Amino acid sequence: MKNYLSSMVIFSFIFMSCNSAAQISTADKKIDAKVDSVLKLMTLDEKIGQMVLYTSGWDVTGPTLKSDYIDDIRNGKCGNIFNAHTVEYVRKLQKIAVEESRLGIPLLFGYDVIHGHKTIFPISLGESASWDLKAIEKSARIAATEAAASGLNWTFAPMVDISVEPRWGRVSEGAGEDPFLGSQIAAARVRGFQGNNLADTTTVLACVKHFAAYGAPLAGRDYNTVDMSQRVFLDVYLPPYKSAIDAGALSVMSSFNEFDGVPATGNRYLLTEILRNQLGFKGFVVSDYTSVNEMVHHGVVANEEEAALLAIKAGLDMDMQGEVYAKYLKKLIEKGLIDEKTIDQSVRRILSVKFKLGLFDDPYRYCNEAREKRTIYAPEHLEAAFDVAKRSMVLLKNENNILPLKKGEKIAVIGELANSKRDLLGSWKAAGDWNFIKSILDELKEYNGEKNVLYAEGCKKMGDDRTGFAQAMATARRADKIVMVIGEDAEWTGEAASRSNINIPGVQTELLEQLKTLNKPIVVVLMNGRPLVLAEENKLADAILEAWFPGTMGGKAVTHVLFGEYNPSGKLTMTFPLNLGQVPIFYYEKNTGRPIYLGNDKYKSKYLDSPNDPLFPFGFGLSYTTFEYSDITLSTNELQQDGNIRASVTVTNTGKRDGEEVVQCYVRDLVGSVTRPVKELKGFEKIFLKAGESKKVSFTITPDLLSFHRQDMTYGTEPGDFKMFIGGNSRDVKETSFKLIN
Ligand code: GLC
Questions:
Q1: Residue 565's domain is classified under what CATH number?
Q2: Tens digit of each residue's pLDDT (9 = 90 or more) over 210-241
Q3: How far is the CA of 61 from the centre of ligand 1 (A)?
Q4: Given ligand 1 and candidates 288, 318, 319, which is best to mutate, with the most ligand atoms within 8 Å of its CB?
Q5: Is residue 618 in a domain?
Q6: For a tag site, which of 55, 182, 325, 730 has the least CB within 10 Å?
Q7: How many CB atoms sit inside 10 A of residue 375's CB?
């Protein structure tokens, strides 16, 4: 209690000193004054303690663990904890910090709440395929609400890394290949997590990761080298980070990879010149898990003391799990290599966030057992997870409209994943619990009747055991249609989960081939966390539904889409290649000097053994209905520097069912001082159309949307001719043209 009293005395001193500064005008200035008042009371050890983040033993998300973190909290040597949740455990640790440490500074509690806390939503790549910003923001809002109810106040999300590398397992955590869509989703997720008031007990601090360009590892191998031009970084990879920061994110996580030869965690160009000086970031930067230590492996420093120096000089404020700041920052000051002002700057940033979270007003504000009980799995949360899961699914094929299934049809369900609950939650499932949820099989039986749903596992999602094939064939013979659920193990995506081939694993496709010999309609449902090579499966299946790892309500969502209770509306946000040899393949490619459409057959940018086109392009997704697009009309064909162009199309639902369509608008800059992509997404709108209904959809194109880093690296536009494309994906589009005038 002694400590608690002393800290309460300290806090009252803080408030008194603040009130005396009557001229303080804004909330931030008030917080700055409070932060300075605390800083004045802190020893150097206590300041460094605020720059330290340790994992509790509750969850393991990296290579090292530390057992004495509780002592460090008590001694003011650890100001932040991650991988600890539930009100009971958070309160226990917070009590040690507030009542047993000398100053009683409250802890931050972080966790990887990536796509839900207890109610798990589809993996982020799946959610992005909904192209539904409201749904995505709502998903983050609910994740934050449940996380905050569990005592947490910081999530290590959104992950906004652009990627064109399906071999990289972490594409599952992001929003795909496109900077325009990725930027809008990044902002939506930050708004969802942080809301309008960080001190609200339904919001948590967002953490934009992984800064920067982590999504471009050579060969798709996690943690591998990233090497790209500054122009590609600034025009393609940076925008989503900028968008998240513009949306108010107050923490950023540095990435494991090197960037232009310097690991991001010690890269001053990234952490200070770009992040602070260009993007105006005001929060704090936390390293990734021991990424400070790992700069020794990178070979830019000889030891961890040098790593601490490189990181603090680059602008890193907090060391996650590495114990490098804890061990060496004081030594660096004693050696005169850094001064205490540098430490103070980082501590100010961290304390400022703690004040904004309301932790100094009430360190236990996120610890309310009754709120935790009524919030977790609230019916409206489960309903939202069901809705987002449906919206995320992408219909890739539907030959002869064998989908939707008809209620009462006898279906044979095949595949281990059909009966899996764990895999529905995907990777980074945080505190998600699959024991109470229903599998796809459970939901199909419930919807269509036990007697109308036969099941045989057939084979595992991995391995070469074919002993179940015969049973699967026998089961399928007794049904009208076959629904085979195939894909990846949930842990085959996410961190440290790169694959050297991106086929369907094991013998799942072999079994599909055998089932095909029965000449019955086959529906393939995919559960995966990355684009896969599906050329074989596409030949064998009559219909393909991309379900991703759809979350807590995924079984019901798959069932309702298969039976047409919901008309699928998702569109791919990453290109699905025809084969691995095409990778990296993405829609915003350059034309090259020998484009494939040139007259001669030989000397052009193509393969001897494969087409250039992917199997399924960016933005692609079918519906149970059909849509037709009118030609594009433009408000003008000449865009002035101070003007805009309104581009419009009329979209008609020409089918027999109501449905949703994502109308996409792309442009192409035909001539630039540097080569320009053949298409760039500059607008989209998801619309609902009743059967037979038409709707006019318009996009406003401004010069700013056409800006890029020119040959001299200045940012802006160049006058000249442009094409515009509007359609339901990046391939099948209506086209027109316009000029940008000086
Ligand atoms: C991991 C991940 C990062 C995560 C962190 C904490 O290594 O790279 O995304 O937030 O550690 O779990």
A1: 3.40.50.1700
A2: 999 999 999 999 999 999 999 999 999 999 99
A3: 6
A4: 288
A5: no
A6: 55
A7: 22
